[in-house]
């Protein structure tokens, strides 16, 4: 089989105007082309079109993955292609990939095999510049903060309370913690700070959670950067920077329209990480999709403990949307890994034994799948399990996974071979989702916003993860007290934790129970609209592996990009 890049570069693309007209019924007046195959969609769509009453909203999540991922993006794209094959007007909404993982460990985020978004090089590198705009806006606010303190500090900002960090879309561990302002008074005041990767920045989360341009501007103004000497929050509005940030993001708030290998539409917008931020593409992209299509298939980041939980309790709260069904992606290899019998490390090749038939390992790792099914069902929405089939999987293994999923309460469990067959390989999944989405459901959130901060944290940790005891550092206790005093205690919770386990320990596989959760600190993303407790050793700036993926990226003599995956 050809490589992902070879498949993408051999694709027969059609002009993006044709994609919009043929699959969405949208004329070119609503498009601002970025070349022949990419376009921004005007927000006038939200004014001129109403959400279809019968439009179905499908969210794709997964079990806790191996470091290579289990195919959520592949399934999201493949399902939308398959639904179009069934005669439905379907569009998928996905995040723009960060270039940090692209040149680090994970590679790109365009899907893979015959279930990809194209042109994949454009999607994975720069696209329409939204990431750069988010990074610039983040750094602009940082510059305003430092300048305000240096220039007589009229806002009386306490420098020791400033939490705002700069952003860069590169995995660069040496920037996690640093000292700026060296060189004398003219160069600023020396202080400790650091960088987050752009996908982990609050402004990226704001872009994804804003419902329109007015909401974007208001959220930018609510960003809390620290406190004054009296303990009062200082915002970007106080610094008179919110308007400038909004101006920088004026184009970025519009979703990007692209196409799959089968020329069906994809909306690509925003890119918040799911282990740190809320991990879903933008509310605006979903709004646009639901006005133009019968089905919107959206992806939530990593496993259901990260992506689906935050999708329901954060994104759906702000969008007002309710999913009609969930797809839960799993693989035989992931369940084998969750037996705990295999060492699976980021940046290292998977153990070859994971490609051999091992019925016992699947049985021992099945608890992870069962817990995720149980969790998604708790939202009151039907869940269809999609087995992303790999070539080494045996029919005996597939049959066992089906049996486990159905007995755990899944509405259906079907094989998916969209990686190898494109939309044709997702027809069984599309039929199952079409059926599930028409069932009556009682959608609900995991917790109420009015409950105290600790109660919300403990509800997520105990009910969704299976934790026993929750420990809080002295710093976290002080932050809870401060946020409650400031009125931030009514915000939803966005747990920052590893995606490789239900717990905070990436090495704790399967379905652990009664483990301890350690809340190291709690940060406030007031503009985005949530508090995020940091569990364990999670970092907001990744590092590169010993052999970065970027070492394989190059251009050939004709100017074509090579080495992406």
CATH architecture assignment name of the largest domain: 3-Layer(aba) Sandwich
Q: C-alpha Rg, in Å?
A: 23 Å
CATH superfamily of the largest domain: P-loop containing nucleotide triphosphate hydrolases
Number of helices: 19
Q: Kindly name the structural category.
A: alpha/beta
Mean pLDDT equals: 95
CATH class of the largest domain reads Alpha Beta
Major sheet details: 12 strands, mixed
Q: Which residues sit in consecutive blocks of at least 5 with pLDDT less than 50?
A: none
Morphology call: globular
CATH fold annotation of the largest domain: Rossmann fold
Percent range for β-strand residues: 15-25%
Q: What is the total tally of β strands? A: 23
Number of domain units: 3
**N-to-C span:** 14 Å
Oligomeric status of the shown chains? single chain
| Helix proportion range | 25-40%
Provide a brief overview of the structure:
With 565 residues, the protein is an alpha/beta fold.
In words, what does this structure look like?
The chain has 565 residues and is an alpha/beta fold. It has three domains: 12-125 and 253-436, P-loop containing nucleotide triphosphate hydrolases (Rossmann fold); 130-248, Domain 2, N(10)-formyltetrahydrofolate synthetase (2-Layer Sandwich), CATH 3.30.1510; 453-535, Formyltetrahydrofolate synthetase, domain 3, CATH 3.10.410. The protein has 19 helices and 23 strands. The strands form six sheets. Strands 1, 2, 3, 4, 5, 6, 13, 14, 15, 16, 17 and 18 form a twelve-stranded mixed sheet that branches. Helix 15 links the parallel strand 17 and strand 18. Helix 7 runs antiparallel to helix 10 and helix 9 crosses helix 10 (242-248). The longest helix is centred in the first third of the chain and has 21 residues, at 130-150. The radius of gyration is 23 Å and the shape is globular. The two termini are 14 Å apart. The relative contact order is 0.16. The mean pLDDT is 95.
């Amino acid at each position: 089989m050809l490589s992902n890049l070879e498949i993408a570069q051999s694709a027969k693309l059609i002009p993006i105007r044709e994609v919009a007209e043929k699959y969405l019924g949208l004329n070119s007046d609503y498009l601002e082309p970025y070349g022949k195959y990419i376009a921004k969609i005007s927000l006038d769509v939200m004014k001129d079109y109403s959400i279809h009453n019968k439009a179905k909203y499908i969210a794709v999540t997964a079990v806790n993955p191996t470091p290579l991922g289990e195919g959520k993006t592949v399934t999201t794209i493949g399902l939308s292609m398959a639904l179009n094959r069934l005669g439905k007007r379907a569009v998928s909404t996905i995040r723009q990939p960060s270039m940090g993982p692209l040149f680090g460990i994970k590679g790109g985020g365009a899907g893979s095999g015959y279930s990809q978004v194209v042109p994949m090089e454009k999607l994975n590198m720069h696209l329409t510049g939204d990431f750069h705009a988010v990074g610039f806006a983040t750094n602009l606010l940082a510059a305003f903060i430092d300048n305000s303190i240096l220039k007589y500090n009229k806002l009386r900002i306490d420098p020791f309370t400033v939490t705002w960090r700069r952003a860069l879309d590169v995995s660069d561990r040496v920037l996690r913690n640093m000292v700026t302002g060296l060189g004398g008074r003219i160069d600023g005041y020396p202080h400790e700070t650091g960088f987050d990767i752009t996908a982990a920045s609050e402004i990226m989360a704001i872009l994804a959670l804003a419902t329109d341009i007015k909401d974007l501007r208001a959220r930018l103004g609510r960003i809390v950067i620290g406190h004054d000497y009296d303990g009062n929050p200082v915002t970007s509005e106080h610094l008179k920077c919110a308007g400038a940030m909004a101006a920088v993001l004026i184009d970025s708030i519009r979703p990007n329209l692209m196409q799959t290998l089968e020329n069906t539409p994809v909306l690509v917008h925003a890119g918040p990480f799911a282990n740190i931020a809320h991990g879903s593409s933008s509310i605006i992209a979903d709004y646009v999709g639901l006005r133009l299509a019968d089905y919107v298939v959206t992806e939530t980041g990593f496993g259901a403990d990260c992506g689906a939980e935050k999708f329901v309790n954060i994104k759906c709260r702000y969008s007002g949307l309710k999913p009609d069904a969930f797809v839960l992606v799993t693989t035989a290899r992931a369940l084998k890994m969750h037996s705990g019998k295999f060492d699976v490390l980021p940046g290292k090749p998977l153990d070859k034994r994971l490609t051999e038939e091992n019925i016992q390992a699947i049985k021992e790792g099945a608890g992870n799948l069962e817990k995720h099914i149980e969790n998604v069902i708790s939202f009151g929405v039907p869940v269809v399990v999609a087995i992303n089939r790999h070539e080494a999987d045996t029919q005996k293994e597939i049959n066992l996974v089906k049996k486990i999923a159905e007995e755990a309460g899944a509405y259906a469990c079907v094989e998916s071979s969209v990686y190898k067959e494109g939309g044709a390989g997702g027809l069984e999944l599309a039929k199952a989702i079409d059926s599930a989405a028409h069932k009556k459901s009682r959608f609900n959130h995991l917790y109420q916003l009015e409950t105290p901060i600790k109660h919300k944290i403990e509800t997520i940790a105990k009910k969704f993860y299976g934790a026993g005891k929750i420990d809080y550092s002295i710093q976290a206790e002080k932050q809870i007290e401060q946020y409650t005093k400031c009125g931030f205690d009514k915000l939803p919770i966005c747990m920052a934790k590893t995606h490789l386990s239900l717990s905070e320990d990436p090495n704790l596989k399967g379905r652990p129970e009664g483990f301890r959760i350690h809340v190291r600190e709690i940060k406030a993303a007031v503009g985005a609209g949530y508090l995020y407790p940091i569990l364990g050793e999670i970092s907001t700036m990744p590092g590169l592996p010993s052999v970065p993926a970027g070492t394989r990226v190059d251009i050939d003599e004709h100017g074509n990009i090579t080495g992406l995956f």
